[in-house]
Write a structure and sequence with these properties.
Order of helices and strands: HEHEEEEEEEHHHHHHHEE
Largest sheet: 4 strands, antiparallel
Number of domains: 2
Helix content: 25-40%
Structural class: alpha+beta
Radius of gyration: 20 Å
Oligomer: single chain
Strand order of the largest sheet: 1-6-7-5
CATH topology of the largest domain: Helicase, Ruva Protein, domain 3
Number of helices: 9
Number of strands: 10
Distance between the termini: 28 Å
Length: about 280
DNA sequence: AAACAAACCTGTGCGC
DNA sequence: TGCGCACAGGTTTGTT
């Protein structure tokens, strides 16, 4: 579910509501959520600790602790982080609960029906061994800043379907299926173009589209789809979905040209929506 | 190197 | 109403 804008919205919520509050107790239900280490490792790593900051790289949430360790959270497809008053009824699939110091007493919940998400406390001085994928992560368009020249180099040094490249977290980190399709539409480029075939003007449009789609989606608090699965840390949905031009609009008239219908095909194993008239 | 399928899980929506 | 199947915001692994 969550892509860069949704994770960024969650990060801001963690920064505002959780950073600086000591964790007094930790509960871990499903061990699968902490599979990288163990239930006991997460409990030992977080009990008595305080998050000192909340960072994001791609879809990874990274929170340094006052112990010197670092907390990593990845929401994958269906993960959610929520802050709620203690003694509130927890939703189904609440796998981890962090009890936070303060008045009123509150809890941070990790809720994840499909259990693809994970939480882990790791030692940042040993990052290459404990979190190897972080070292291999591509440039984050927002956190790192992505220049047009950088993008041009990434595109031209490979011969890959554009959509597959944009979704590859080792190349560019943070774009998922929704924002990929929306970005390609705004840039007026087809998903099945080869990355090294883009002209200068097309690269310029793609670069601008990546940044403007992600920034607008962050501004809107992300996208909450019909299943209302994605919500921010206070349980509020985002509203960028009202600006979707192609995602989940197969068969409907294109909002940009008003003349063609949005088509849906499978690309790189993902459903892909595009306008055959606007995108070339 | 790149494309593709399958795997990891659970829930929902659709056609019959 | 009930059943079975396809599919879902992500990522890794293994195979062509």
């Amino acid at each position: 579910m969550p892509e860069l804008p949704e994770v960024e919205t969650v990060r801001r919520g963690i920064e505002a509501q959780v950073v600086g509050r000591r964790i007094t107790r930790v509960e871990v239900g499903r061990e699968r959520t902490v599979r990288r280490t163990s239930r006991q490792a997460l409990i030992d790593g977080l009990t008595g600790a305080t998050l000192t900051a909340a960072h994001r790289r791609g879809k990874y949430l990274l929170c340094p602790l006052d112990t010197g360790d670092e907390l990593m959270v990845h929401l994958r497809m269906s993960g959610r982080l929520m802050v709620a008053d203690a003694n509130t009824e927890r939703p189904p699939h609440t796998h981890v609960v962090l009890h936070l110091e303060g008045d009123p007493r509150q809890e941070l919940w990790f809720v994840d029906p499909r259990t693809f998400g994970e939480m882990v406390v790791f030692d940042p001085t040993n990052i290459a061994v404990e979190m190897p994928e972080l070292a291999r992560m591509g440039v984050d368009p927002i956190t790192d800043g992505l220049t047009r020249a950088q993008l041009a180099a990434l595109l031209r040094s490979r011969h890959r379907q554009l959509k597959a490249l944009l979704l590859d977290q080792h190349v560019i980190a943070g774009i998922g299926n929704i924002y990929c399709d929306e970005t390609l539409h705004l840039a007026r480029v087809r998903h099945d173009r080869s990355s090294d075939s883009l002209t200068g003007p097309e690269i310029t449009r793609l670069h601008a589209a990546i940044l403007s789609v992600l920034e607008a989606a962050i501004e809107a608090g992300g996208s909450t789809l019909a299943d209302t699965q994605y919500v921010d840390i206070e349980g509020q949905g985002g509203w960028f979905q009202v600006h979707h031009k192609v995602y989940d609009r197969a068969g409907q008239r294109c909002l940009t040209c008003g003349k063609a219908d949005i088509q849906r095909v499978m690309v790189a194993g993902r459903s892909t929506c595009f306008c055959p008239r606007c995108q070339r």
